[in-house]
Design brief:
The chain is mainly beta. The chain is built from two helices and 16 strands.
Length: about 300
């Protein structure tokens, strides 16, 4: 196991014990007065996002998932991943969530590449989010999954929700993979609400390989989601456009390959603390994969 993975695991253990006791939910004075004798709303207790009281600032939201919650007055729907490939904002302070990802990517002329990803998300103070990943890969149906990749991600939202148009958030990620060069990834995350129940996200992405072929990918992802059942079921679509090239020789890079994928996006929430996302994307250009599917199972603690 690499030093980076050991460090990630150590950080996870420390944060797992510290966060539930270190962060407290800020309760509105009115709510606190109403429940001063209630242990469940004690200001010293960390509340999961589905139990956080709505912030009575903008009036009653049409949907419960659009209630404003937490220190950043963000809509409840932003506390959990809404799309497979597109991120929106940060999770609330004090939130801890585990996600399992299954990502099969089918090449047009070749076997399917499988990625099995394990992620833990931490909501930190100051509109900061920390994510730790461990990823296993295999090619085809006969290879065994090998845990050969680890990633560290940090997000920073520039302001509380809706204080800045489009809710810009900076995303930085470092990826270390066995027998391959490291990757650095920078994203600008945007997102918001078009109308009651209609939510969107969009990311500008720069992914750079630090060695080997020094591949660079310039990407634009989008997601659109409409709530069919409040806090239960949403249906939408996602797109991913990537312009990818690599180094041919010092100072000379190959022409960009143009990869565009598009497909439906579904979120199902059978339990308040659980979300299941399914986004099968299909290649629409000759350089794109035949398909790339995201299956994400999340559980908030």
């Amino acid at each position: 196991m690499s030093r980076l993975l050991q460090a990630c695991c150590g950080t996870f253990l420390v944060l797992s014990f510290c966060i539930p006791n270190s962060f407290s939910q800020v309760v509105n004075p009115a709510d606190k007065q109403k429940s001063s004798s209630s242990e469940s709303n004690s200001p010293d207790q960390r509340l999961p996002t589905w139990q956080m009281p709505a912030i009575d600032v903008y009036g009653e939201a049409p949907l419960r998932e659009e209630d404003r919650i937490g220190d950043y007055a963000q809509p409840r729907w932003t506390a959990h991943r809404r799309f497979g490939e597109t991120r929106v904002y940060v999770v609330p302070k004090g939130m801890v969530e585990f996600e399992y990802w299954l990502i099969p990517e089918k090449a047009k002329n070749g076997p399917t590449n499988w990625a099995s990803q394990y992620e833990v998300e931490f909501g930190l103070p100051g509109r900061v989010q920390l994510d730790l990943y461990a990823v296993a890969h295999k090619t085809g149906n006969h290879d065994e999954l090998k845990m050969d990749e680890q990633k560290v991600e940090v997000r920073y939202a520039f302001a509380d929700w809706n204080k800045i148009p489009l809710n810009p958030t900076l995303y930085l990620e470092w990826k270390q993979e066995s027998n391959a060069a490291d990757h650095a990834e920078v994203k600008l995350l945007f997102g918001g609400q078009i109308s009651p129940g209609l939510h969107w996200g969009s990311n500008l992405v720069w992914d750079h390989e630090t060695g080997g072929a020094i591949e660079t990918s310039n990407e634009w992802t989008t997601g659109l989601s409409y709530t069919l059942a409040d806090t239960k079921f949403a249906l939408g679509m996602e797109t991913q456009l990537a312009l990818v090239n690599d180094r041919i020789s010092p100072g000379v890079r190959s022409p960009f390959s143009k990869q565009f994928l598009i497909g439906p996006s579904i979120q199902f929430r059978p339990l308040p603390q659980m979300h299941l996302d399914f986004a099968p994307l299909f290649g629409a250009t000759k350089d794109a994969s035949q398909s790339k599917t995201f299956v994400v199972l999340g559980w908030e603690f």
